[in-house]
Structures are given as structure tokens and as C-alpha cells.
């Protein structure tokens, strides 16, 4: 990517800096990008997450925003292949060069950013994350509050020399932020409220990584009533963590993940927010546009096995033949890097085979036969056939 700057190759020349009004600020709010995710150990899926991030940067250029805020889980863990990390670093360098550093990327650490999966532990005490590396390279601005300090020092202004701080001012907007505060951040949020300064003529954004109770089924979050006190000092509460997009009271904004990190994410509305804050006389006016990203296509297919099968090879033949009719519309000439080449989620129902299905072999045969990048197989069988009535009703 650094051989020829990608953004110059796409947009033609370096970004022409426009003189913008001090009374209008435009930004993109994104979160849960999960760079480095090796979903299903599939190379194309791994690149999809990087592609989603690239699209966010392209949107920032297209819409001439002043900055980007990232609400945590920018990386999926501390474990990432060197080649993928190099690609991300080069992309950010290209972006910084193309925009002449006029579009700042402001981030906080989420729980995934400090997670090391192979050991099952988080590394917040050791101070490790790839976001800290990108911050040290001057490619992003990583905000983090000092919650042990007195209120006046909790959010120190970001220092570009030391690359530390908990807030940054861009025109008349002040962005406050802190790392992931754990599953019960209420006490920390109370201290933050006292530390946030609400001044006339300034618009406050608080960047946090937590969910709101009730926004995702069976997923714990913070009770909305317990954070209402923030509303008096925070104009825009920018969240990350939940992969489902939501807006509450025109005050709390969660964009959702930029790419589906698991199959359930495909059912959620996700994307980014394009926000413009304008000052009209003595009042701020906010406009929020929801932008969906170009994500990997997915399809669900359900196959019913209506009789008991005893041979593994027979199962494979039957499934392949049934899929040929279901997937005949797929284009065989599209390269797998194209997000139109889908992931297949295959649900098997009906009478349970008497032999064990070799899912690894089945997946390989399906991927070799159809223009898909991967297939996930879910078995929801009934018990074996016992009567003629069962066979008729299957």
C-alpha cells in the first residue's frame, strides 16, 4: 500500500484543504471494528474487517470531516498477524499523508483491545495494546482519563509531545475519553461527570465503551437511569461495545460494529454515524446521518432431511445436490475479495442421520463446489425416524 498511496490512487491527488467555519464541526462516529479478526480462520474474512476500516477512512475524506471518533474494540485482541498489522499501519500512514493530518482519528481502548485470547486474560495492568502503538507512531490520538487524579486533572488536554491526555478540543467541540472501565463503570462515570467542564460556546462529547441495559437481548449493560446525571455536562455520549446500532433520547449514540463479527451480528443494524454540529446564535444544532458500510454478503439456507441417512458420503451428496438448486443464482466469476461473494450459513433439520456428519469435509466440498468464501453448518435434527407418520410429517 505504501508503494503507491492508496488514497491518492483512489481520489487522484492529496486532499485539498478547505477553509471551514469555526461554527460547524463534522465528524464520523464508528466503533467495534475488530481489526485482526480471523473469523473462521478465513483469509478473506480477515481482510473484510480491514476493508471496513478503509471504507470509514474513505467516508471521512469524501465528507470532509474534521475528525473520526472510535469507541473501542478497534482491534479484536492483542494477537494479530504481522502482515495484517503492517497493512493497517501503512493504511493509516497513507491516510495521514493524503489528508495532510487534517482529519484526526481519536480512539479509546475497548475490552477487546486489551485482550489476549490465548491466555484468556486482559492486559490493562501491563499497559499493552495496539492502539498505544498507533498512538506512539502519531497515527491516532488515544484518549485516557486519569481516574486516580483529582477532578481537575482527570481529563488533561492531549499533549502531542508526550502523546497522553484525556481530552482534545477541535474548534468548539471538546472530546473527552477513557479506556474500558470494566463491567461496572458507574462509580468511574460519577467521577468523570465532576471532571467534565461545561462551558458556554463549547459542545462536549464523551467517548466510552459500554452497553445500555435492554438494547441487546440477554446482554448486560448499564441502567439508563444511572447515567442521566451525565446529560447535564455531556451533549453527545458516544458509545461502543454493543454490535447493534441504537440511539437513545437523541443523546446516546452507538453505531454498532463495522463488520459482522459473528453470525448474529448479521441481523443487527450496524454502520457509522456522520454527525454535523452547527452553532446557530446561542444554540448548537445536531444533524446525524446513518451510513451503512459495504459488508460481506451472507445467506441462510435450511435443508430438511426427510429420512434417516446411514452413510456420510450419502449425506454430502444429498446436501450438495439440494444446494445446487438453492444457490444456482450465485455468480461464479466474481473474485472472493468482492464482498458480494457470500458466507453461507447452512441449517440442517429433519431426521437425524445415524452416522456422524464430518463437518470439516462437508464444508470443504461445499466451498469447492459453490462461489462462497466459507460455510458454517448448524445441526438442528430431530430424533431418528420411528414411524411412517413421522416420515410423512417430516
Summarize this, please?
With 394 residues, the protein is of the alpha/beta class. Helix content is 24%, strand content 23%. Helix 2 packs parallel to helix 3 (82-98).
Explain this structure to me?
The protein is of the alpha/beta class and 394 residues long. 24% of the residues lie in helices and 23% in strands. The strands form four sheets. A six-stranded mixed beta sheet has the order 6-3-2-1-13-14, with helices on one face. Strand 16, helix 8 (359-369) and strand 17 (374-382) form a beta-alpha-beta unit.
SSE map:
Elements: H1 6-11, E1 24-30, H2 43-62, E2 67-70, H3 82-98, E3 104-107, E4 115-116, E5 121-122, H4 130-136, E6 141-142, H5 151-154, E7 167-170, E8 173-177, H6 186-195, E9 203-209, E10 236-240, E11 246-248, E12 252-254, E13 272-280, E14 283-291, E15 298-305, H7 312-326, E16 343-351, H8 359-369, E17 374-382, H9 388-393
Parallel strand pairs: 1-2, 2-3, 3-6, 8-9, 9-10, 10-12, 15-16, 16-17
Antiparallel strand pairs: 1-13, 4-5, 7-8, 11-12, 13-14
Helix pairs in contact: 2-3
List keywords for this structure.
394 residues; alpha/beta; Purple Acid Phosphatase, chain A, domain 2; 2 domains; 6-stranded mixed sheet; 9 helices; 24% helix; disordered C terminus
- Termini separation comes to 54 Å
Strand order of the largest sheet: 6-3-2-1-13-14
SSE order, one letter for each helix or strand: HEHEHEEEHEHEEHEEEEEEEHEHEH
Instruction: Give me the number of helical elements.
Output: 9
In terms of quaternary structure, the protein is: single chain
Q: Which structural class matches the secondary elements?
A: alpha/beta
